[in-house]
Every structure is written in structure tokens, then in C-alpha cells.
Amino acid sequence: MTKQVGILTSGGDAPGLNAAIRGVGKAGYETYDMHMIGFRNGFRGLMQDRTMPLPSEALSNILTLGGTILGTSRDKPHRMPIAGKTQDMTDAIVEVYHKHQLDVLVCLGGRGTQRNALRLADKGLNIVTLPKTIDNDIPLTDTTFGFDTALEIATDAIDRLHSTATSHNRIIVVEIMGHRAGWLALGAGIAGGADVILIPEIPYDAQAIADAIRARTRKGKLFSIVAVAEGALSQDEAADFEKARAEKDAATNKEEKNAARAKLIELDKHHVDNTVRLTHQLEDLTGLESRLTILGHLQRGGTPSGADRLLATRLGTVAADLINEQRYGVMVAARGLGAAPVPLAEVAANRKTVPLDHEWVTSARRMGVSFGDA
Ligand code: F6P
């Protein structure tokens, strides 16, 4: 019997999403007896029953497109803002799933999406997910689609910043996305030859960065490139966050929990301008002119790289295989040249951050790159 397959994309867009939709869809139509229905704008569109027909013709000419043809949103089934109120819309979503007589819902997204998909699986829906994010912070998968393209864009940016930094003998600070993980800044920092790389996993001391830059000046290297992950924290900030998190964990009543939550929100708000403050600090501490470039959403835009198209396509086709075998409640993880289903519950419970002894960190340190920690 024909299987009804619903597909949605959720969370921030990332290059490779359309390649993944195409991979699931083409394998579903060409190899199996499946029918695809798209839902627009993530879990919100699913809740609103906003469908987009996905016949096999709709899957042509989308492989190279950036973004997502389905649209996306950051809405969560259990906390959806509706008419000024946050509501749990999980039951409404379950109803739409059954209305369309879906055999499975395929959710393409990052960490938030994996957690939301698990909530739906816990409600009895058949779910298969794919790991999408430029942040590369999803556990149990070697990598995620979107990461390679963003890495290329950030590396290219660092390459370009080198010539202007050299010409002016300046410090150029470049802020790179990655949420609370340092993969993107670390990878692009190494690939682009940054002199200082700051990642959330290694809290920094501005004085140590300035010392490293001055040491370069003494060797006749009059410019420096500082690659900063958006989530990078000074040692003081990291201590403040740790304290607020510990207070939240230790809270014994609602008031204490809310107060700790409010503190964390305040700290997050203050963190937004962190790279601006660091750039000024480095200028003051080194006496070198300093400039800041924030790459922002540029890193998520445009054509996916060949590697991301390949990864998204092969993970997408494996999703179709799993649906055919009725293996649900799993994410399709990249494993070497292959792929493997991993339990959603395990994926949703963790974040993959950069281990301090990761070989990228070790090899950068061996080359004299400063992480601002000593
Ligand atoms: O998760 C992908 C990501 O691009 C992060 O790197 C970044 O912190 C976040 O999304 C930005 O979110 P938004 O697009 O909602 O501003």
C-alpha cells in the first residue's frame, strides 16, 4: 500500500535542505511506493494544516537551491505563540497528522527540531529526522548538512579579510555563527589561517589575546585575524553563566527558578554585543587599530556546496529506506561514508560541542594559534 509521507523543515534554514527533501522524495517515488506531502513553515504550518503538494515534478530543479522550498520557522509544538499567548498545540498537530493519514512525518532540522520531533514521537507519531544545521552541534552524527557550505563561506571571508588586515596593519575580528558550539569558527579559523580562534568551549582572557597579538608584532607580523564564535565567552562571562545555571538547577521553588531564568536571559542579552566590546578592548590593549566584521546570516545563504548536496541526498535516501522498513523514532546520522539510524531520544538529550582535546584544537595549538586562554 502507498505510504503517506509528510515532510517539514524547521529551525534556521541551512544550505542542503532542498537537496535532502529531494533525496527523500525521489527515493520515495522512484524506489518505493510512497506519496509525499510537504508542510509549510515548520511545526506552525503543520499545526495550521498548511500543505504544499510534493509530486515528483516538484522535486526537479531544487538540488542547487539554498533555503527551503517548504519555508521554515522556529515554532515549537508545545510552546507556540498564538494571538499573544503561548499555547501547547501538540494535540492539534497530532490531529493534522491523522487527518492526512500519514504513515510517517520526516522532520529536517537542527537540535531544537530534534527535540520537538521527539515530543511528537512520544505522542505516538511515526517520526524520522535528518540532521541539518550550519552549527554541526547535533550529537551522534559525524556532521550535519549546511556545515560544509557555511565553513566555505566563513573561510572565504577570512581569506578576503587577510589582504585588508595586512594592508592596514590592523587587527580584524571576524564573528562567525555556530550558536553555543565552536565548530564553525574553529574549522573556518584553521582553514583561513586565523591567528586567534575563540570558541565557547574555551573561555578567553582579553589580556592573553592581546599578549599573543603583541608577540606576533614583535616577530614582524603587523596584522592579526581573530576568528570569534558568536557563542565565545570571556572567562568572567563564562563564570557568570555557570553561576546562573547552577542557581537555576538548585532552585527549589517557582520564584527562584524564574529569577535564575531572568538572570540567564539578561546575560544572553548582554552577550549579543560581546564581539564589539572585545574589538574595542583589543584596540586599547594592543594599541593596534581594530575592526570588526560580523558574517551573520550570509553564512546560511545561497547555493549548497557539493559536499552538502551529497550528504543531504544520501541521508535523505536512507530516510526513505528506513520508512520502507518502518523504522521510526530515529534520526539518520552520517557515519563515515555511510549512514545509520540513531534513537531520537539520545540525539535530543545532548549538544555536540568541541572536545578540548579535539584534533582540530590540538593542531591549531601546535601551529601557535592562540585560543585566548593562556
Ligand atoms: O542554528 C543556526 C544558526 O544560524 C546559529 O548559528 C545562529 O545562532 C542562529 O541560527 C541564528 O538564528 P536566527 O536565524 O533565528 O537569527
Explained architecture:
There is one protein chain. The chain is an alpha/beta fold. Helices cover 44% and strands 17% of the residues. The chain has helices spanning 17-30, 42-47, 90-99, 111-122, 147-168, 183-192, 206-218, 235-250, 254-271, 274-286, 306-324, 344-348, 359-366, and strands spanning 3-9, 34-39, 51-53, 80-82, 85-87, 104-109, 127-131, 171-176, 196-198, 224-229, 290-294, 330-335, 338-343. Helix 5 packs across helix 6 (183-192) and helix 7 (206-218) crosses helix 10. It is globular, with a radius of gyration of 22 Å. The model has no long low-confidence stretch (mean pLDDT 97).
Salient structural properties:
374 residues; alpha/beta; Rossmann fold; 2 domains; 7-stranded mixed sheet; 4-stranded parallel sheet; 13 helices; 13 strands; globular; binds 6-O-phosphono-beta-D-fructofuranose
**String of helices and strands:** EHEHEEEHEHEHEHEHEHHHEHEEHH
What is the CATH-assigned architecture of the largest domain?
Answer: 3-Layer(aba) Sandwich
What is the total number of structural domains?
A: 2
Low-confidence runs? none
Number of strands: 13
**CATH class annotation of the largest domain:** Alpha Beta
Report Rg.
22 Å
State the strand order across the main sheet: 3-2-1-6-7-12-13
| Helix share, percent | 40-55%
Bound small molecules, by name, code or SMILES, are: 6-O-phosphono-beta-D-fructofuranose
Shape designation:
globular
- Strand-residue proportion: 15-25%
Largest sheet: 7 strands, mixed
Number of helices: 13
Which structural class best describes the helix and strand composition? Answer: alpha/beta
Mean pLDDT: 97
CATH topology-level fold name of the largest domain? Rossmann fold
